[in-house]
C-alpha cells in the first residue's frame, strides 16, 4: 500500500485528491493546524468512510512553520508521495498580506524539500508542487505565439504569483541538484461546490442561490471582462495523481483550451436558477436586470478592483494530454449547475434549521 502525505486536506483540491487516493487504496496522511474550530466540512464523509470501508485516512496536527514537528512526521511516515498544496492562494488577499503570502507559498516549499532530504527520502519520495496560471500574468498580444505552455516567459502580476514562481523554481532546482522527483503543476482555474466563499465563482453561485431564495438583493462584482479557464477540481486532481505515476518528473500546464469571462459565468449561474438577465450599459456602469421583475441583480463595485489585474490568459495543455493521457470530463455549464444546486440546497437547509429552532424557542417561551 502506497503512502501519501497531503499538506492540509480541508480545502477544495485537498479533499478531492484525498477521495481519489483513498479510492486507489492509498494510506493517506494529512496535516491540519490545531485550532479551536475543527473545520472538516469538506472531508467529514471521508472520516466516516474510513471506519466503514477499512481505509487509512490519518490526521496529523502540525503547521508548516514548525520545522521540528514536520521533520518528525516525514521521518515517521516515510511517504511515497507528497502533494504540497498548502498555500495562501487568493490573489486579492496577497495584495493585502504580501509577507504572509510569501512565507506561506514559497518558504514552505523549500522547507518540505529540505525535510525530505534530511529524512534520506530524496530517491524514493515523489514530490508534487502546486503552481498557478498567475505565473504568466501579463498577456503580450504582440507575441507571435498566442498560447502559453510550460516554457513560456512569466510575468506575475501579484504577490501570490511572485511567491509561486519562486516555489516552482526551487522545486526545479532540487530536481536538478539532488535528482529528486519534483513535478510542478501549472494549473488554471478549477472550481467546485467546495471552493472557498471568497473566490469569485463561489461568490457568484452563492449570491445566485440567495437571490433566488429572497435572501439577498444584489450581486456586486468587479472586472466582468476577465477571461479564465474554469473547470471542475475533480478533473484537475486526477492530473495531479497522474503526474506522480510517471517514470520521470516533469512540469505540466493543466488546462482545457476553453475560456469564459466572469460575465459568462454569471449569466450561466443565473440561468441554472431559472433567472434570465438583460445587460445594460458597459464598463463601470454595467448592470444586469431580471427581465421579469426589472430589478437590478448584478452591479459593478469599484471597491473590488485590484492594483493589477490579469485580464486574459491563453494556454496550451498539449503536453499533459499527450504524456499523461489526461482529458477533462466536466463542462463549465455542468460546473455551474452543480455549484448553484449545492448552494441552493445548503441555504434551504439553513433556513429550515432556523425555522425549526424558531418554532422550538417560540414554544418554549409560550
Number of helices: 11
Strand order of the largest sheet: 3-2-1-4-5-6-11
Beta content comes to: 15-25%
Largest sheet: 7 strands, parallel
Low-confidence runs of at least 5 consecutive residues? none
- The structure class reads alpha/beta
Q: Please bin the fraction of helical residues.
A: 40-55%
Number of E-state strands: 15
Head-to-tail CA distance between termini: 60 Å
Mean pLDDT: 86
Describe what you observe in this structure:
This protein has 366 residues and is of the alpha/beta class. Strand 14 and strand 15 form a beta hairpin. Helix 1 crosses helix 8, helix 5 runs parallel beside helix 6 and helix 9 crosses helix 11. The protein is globular and about 65 Å long. The N and C termini lie far apart (60 Å). The model has no long low-confidence stretch (mean pLDDT 86).
Outline the fold blueprint.
Elements (H helix, E strand, L loop, with lengths): L2 E4 L5 H12 L3 E6 L11 H9 L4 E5 L5 H11 L3 E4 L6 H6 L1 H21 L7 E7 L26 H20 L2 E7 L2 E2 L8 H13 L6 E3 L5 E2 L2 E2 H11 L8 E3 L5 E2 H11 L4 E4 L6 E4 L5 E5 L17 H6 L8 H34 L1
Parallel strand pairs: 1-2, 1-4, 2-3, 4-5, 5-6, 6-11, 7-10, 8-15
Antiparallel strand pairs: 9-12, 13-14, 14-15
Helix pairs in contact: 1-8, 3-5, 5-6, 7-9, 7-11, 9-11
Amino acid at each position: 500500500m502506497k503512502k501519501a502525505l497531503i499538506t492540509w486536506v480541508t480545502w477544495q483540491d485537498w479533499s478531492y485528491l484525498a477521495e481519489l487516493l483513498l479510492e486507489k487504496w492509498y494510506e493517506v496522511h494529512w496535516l491540519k493546524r490545531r485550532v479551536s474550530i475543527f473545520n472538516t466540512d469538506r472531508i467529514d464523509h471521508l472520516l466516516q468512510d474510513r471506519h466503514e470501508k477499512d481505509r487509512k485516512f490519518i490526521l496529523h496536527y502540525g503547521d508548516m512553520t514548525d520545522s521540528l514537528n514536520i521533520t518528525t512526521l516525514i521521518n515517521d511516515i516515510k511517504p511515497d508521495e507528497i502533494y504540497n498544496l498548502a498555500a495562501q492562494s487568493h490573489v486579492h488577499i496577497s495584495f493585502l498580506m504580501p509577507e504572509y503570502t510569501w512565507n506561506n507559498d514559497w518558504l514552505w516549499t523549500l522547507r518540505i524539500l529540505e525535510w525530505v532530504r534530511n529524512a534520506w527520502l530524496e530517491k524514493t519520495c515523489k514530490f508534487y508542487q502546486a503552481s498557478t496560471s498567475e505565473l504568466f500574468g501579463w498577456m503580450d498580444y504582440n507575441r507571435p505565439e498566442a498560447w502559453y505552455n510550460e516554457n513560456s516567459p512569466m510575468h506575475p502580476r501579484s504577490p501570490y504569483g511572485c511567491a509561486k514562481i519562486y516555489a516552482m523554481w526551487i522545486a526545479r532546482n532540487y530536481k536538478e541538484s539532488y535528482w529528486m522527483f519534483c513535478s510542478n503543476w501549472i494549473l488554471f482555474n478549477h472550481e467546485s461546490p467546495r471552493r472557498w466563499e471568497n473566490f469569485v465563482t463561489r461568490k457568484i453561485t452563492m449570491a445566485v442561490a440567495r437571490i433566488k431564495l429572497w435572501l439577498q438583493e444584489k450581486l456586486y462584482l468587479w472586472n466582468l471582462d476577465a477571461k479564465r479557464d474554469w473547470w471542475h477540481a475533480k478533473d484537475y486532481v486526477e492530473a495531479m495523481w497522474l503526474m506522480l505515476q510517471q517514470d520521470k518528473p516533469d512540469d505540466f500546464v493543466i488546462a482545457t483550451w476553453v475560456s469564459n469571462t466572469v460575465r459568462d459565468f454569471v449569466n450561466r449561474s443565473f440561468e441554472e436558477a431559472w433567472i434570465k438577465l438583460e445587460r445594460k450599459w458597459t464598463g463601470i456602469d454595467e448592470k444586469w436586470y431580471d427581465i421579469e421583475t426589472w430589478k437590478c441583480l448584478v452591479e459593478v463595485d469599484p471597491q473590488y478592483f485590484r492594483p493589477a489585474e490579469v485580464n486574459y490568459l491563453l494556454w496550451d495543455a498539449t503536453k499533459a494530454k499527450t504524456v499523461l493521457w489526461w482529458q477533462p470530463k466536466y463542462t463549465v455549464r455542468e460546473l455551474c449547475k452543480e455549484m448553484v444546486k449545492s448552494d441552493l440546497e445548503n441555504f434551504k437547509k439553513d433556513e429550515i434549521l432556523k425555522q425549526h429552532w424558531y418554532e422550538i424557542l417560540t414554544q418554549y417561551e409560550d
